[in-house]
Amino acid sequence: MSLRQTGGKSVILLAVFCIVSLASQPATASVLQTFGASPRAIAMGNAYAALSDDWSAVFYNPAGLSQVKDLETSAGFLYARPSLDVSFGGGGEDELRAFPGQVGGAKEVGALIAGWVIPIDRFLTKELSIPIRFGTALVLPNFSANTASVAPDRFPQDVIFNDRNNYMSFHMGLSARVLPVLYVGIGVMLAQSTMVEFYEGYNTTDAISIESRFGTPAITAGILFRPSEIFRFGLTYHQKVDERETLVTGRMIEYPTLTDASFFIIDREEREISAGGYWPQEITLGGAWKISQRWLLAASFSWFEWSSYVSPNGLSPLNAFEDIYVPRVGVEYRLTKTFDLRAGFAWEPTPVTAQPAGYNPVGNDRLVNAVGCGWRFSDPLGLIKEPVVLDFVFQFQLMQSRTVSEGAFPPPYTGVDPAIETKGFAICSAISLTTKF
Fold first, then answer.
1. pTM listed for this prediction
2. In the chain, what are the domain boundaries?
3. What CATH number belongs to 3-436?
């Protein structure tokens, strides 16, 4: 066996080892599950399982990475702002002011997103018989490792626009074209949280920190069937993501004789939190049709196993959540040789069912609309031979009004009418710059 062949196999084995070993680490969901990854994919309604021909394939369908022929790098910024109105049937709202801003735990987030696709052949002296691509993506929300939030179970908590939007995540994928028309891929997602915000008014005599967390690995696998340049079909599997945190309360004791010295004394442990990063098991089937040189149509249909949902306190809700089915469709129109227009649509029903007591999850059916564009231009400095691509998207999610009758709140909130009405919207915009070498 030649040194070149040995080196090629070593690189492949190293990439596989990295994915498998990282899969054993704790993981949680991220902002990509809520809004999407690349601006092009978001603009096409996230109906990207059968396209996945850029770095975002590590999220949508890792099999698609092998469609990228060159070394690809991308960097961008995503901003999202959910706005959820929560109102109660009558009385008691003054006692619930600890609930932050009456927005159901939904928080705005600004995330830096970077992605890469690396052709393994590029670093070898001999082309591999089976083209293999390695892709990665990094999501860094709010320019930090993470800021999570907690609130007692008795407050209404939105299961979609929750702290998962603020978790740093890292995605890896490996893809191979095993047949001229068939691509396969596998990937993993990792995430980490390091901080917790304290809500004024919940219990101002206590200091709060995160003691521990654990989760299940987030594996992604996919296949892509490309019988011609006109049609593509993709199938993707996302493993369930389930993350837990233990809330520790205590008192901060300061010693004025020592400079900036303080000690955290644990009083007790509580499990009444809502800072999990749950995301259900998902299977997505998608297709893409290149209608003409100008028109591209994509669609997908996803199944989410929300019936296995477990609340942040580690318990299954009294009324099980419902599995949901999500259709998505997107279109791209090449206006000129260098400029594309895009639009997308998705309908996502809520899996949340009314709970008779205890944990109070809320959720709304969502109508997701998006528009975007892409512009290809030459590097003005002449350093990059391939065109540079600038993509932009604006997404609007409308949360349909919904009223559910929850069980009575525990003391001292017995005067609160358990009927909860929620409605609102979420906006998201993203921009990215992609280059190939």
1. 0.81
2. 3-436
3. 2.40.160.60
